[in-house]
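Appendix C: a fully annotated inverse folding record. The material below is reproduced so that readers can follow the format used throughout the book. The structure is listed first as tokens, followed by the designed sequence.
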């Protein structure tokens, strides 16, 4: 699905924006399911295994940070990953064998949906090699006003910046770090149905949504099958035990087969330990870990 220019751009810059990955029917189905979940959240009063609630959430005005692991809660999220144009992009970038690490539907409600502070995914879940990427399917139009994904091109080839604050993993870099090159930031916007891709080591973040429109993006994080997680990283895998891990791994295999011969490369690793007081989502990790914000406060009316 990708041409040689797109593949070279991704490897050189650590990100890619691809238009019209989803067909109209696929997009409509994902949107309908997503809004059904949001509607059902009216009955939820505390964050749980499905919902990470944003401040101000209520039955009258549902406000979510995200829907957790949507591929486990509706089969269509799994289908779109394994049998769509998305699958072809993954084959182009990761080869014939790839494994899902996690998924999330970040909803970013209008009028202040939470920021995701600048970070590198790699800091959360280092593996034996870094053939790992994340992609986001835009379920809404994404504009500069509603909290788009931002990236720093080429940062996937640089160091892993500190994601610790006062000795605790806070899941975000310090915006005052001299190695945080804010002058290079690129903002990724597009129409619903577009897809972003970024390497696991690419610095990225997104501002709060101060617009009057939602910003739904469905994220999947994917590893080449020979990249195996290191013990101590932020993942539910380590709680499963050997047999359940094997069963879960087979279910998470998107294309090809599981790989039982991990490829070990010389990659920079600092474990995300000790964990923040609440590490149930990136939003809570950053908040409870005391991460500094890189984004301006809500403008006064």
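Designed amino acids, in order:
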């Amino acid at each position: 699905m990708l041409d040689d220019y797109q593949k070279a751009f991704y490897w050189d810059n650590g990100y890619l924006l691809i238009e019209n990955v989803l067909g109209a029917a696929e997009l409509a189905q994902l949107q309908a399911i997503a809004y059904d979940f949001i509607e059902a959240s009216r009955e939820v009063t505390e964050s749980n295994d499905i919902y990470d609630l944003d401040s101000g959430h209520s039955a009258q005005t549902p406000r979510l940070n995200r829907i957790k692991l949507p591929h486990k809660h509706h089969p269509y999220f799994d289908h779109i990953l394994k049998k769509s144009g998305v699958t072809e992009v993954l084959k182009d970038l990761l080869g014939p064998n790839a494994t899902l690490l996690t998924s999330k539907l970040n909803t970013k409600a209008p009028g202040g949906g939470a920021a995701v502070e600048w970070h590198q995914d790699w800091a959360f879940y280092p593996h034996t090699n870094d053939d790992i990427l994340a992609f986001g399917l835009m379920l809404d139009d994404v504009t500069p006003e509603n909290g788009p994904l931002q990236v720093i091109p080429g940062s996937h080839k640089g160091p892993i910046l500190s994601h610790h604050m006062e000795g605790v993993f806070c899941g975000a870099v310090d915006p005052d770090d001299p190695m945080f090159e804010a002058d290079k930031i690129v903002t990724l916007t597009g129409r619903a149905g577009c897809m972003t891709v970024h390497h696991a080591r690419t610095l990225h973040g997104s501002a709060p949504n101060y617009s009057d429109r939602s910003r739904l993006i469905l994220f999947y994080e994917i590893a080449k099958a020979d990249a195996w997680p290191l013990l101590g990283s932020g993942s539910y895998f380590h709680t499963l035990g050997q047999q359940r891990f094997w069963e879960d791994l087979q279910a998470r295999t998107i294309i090809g087969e599981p790989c039982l011969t991990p490829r070990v490369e010389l990659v920079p690793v600092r474990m995300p330990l000790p964990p923040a007081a609440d590490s149930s989502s990136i939003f809570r990790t950053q908040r409870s870990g005391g991460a500094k914000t890189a984004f301006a406060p809500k403008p006064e009316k």
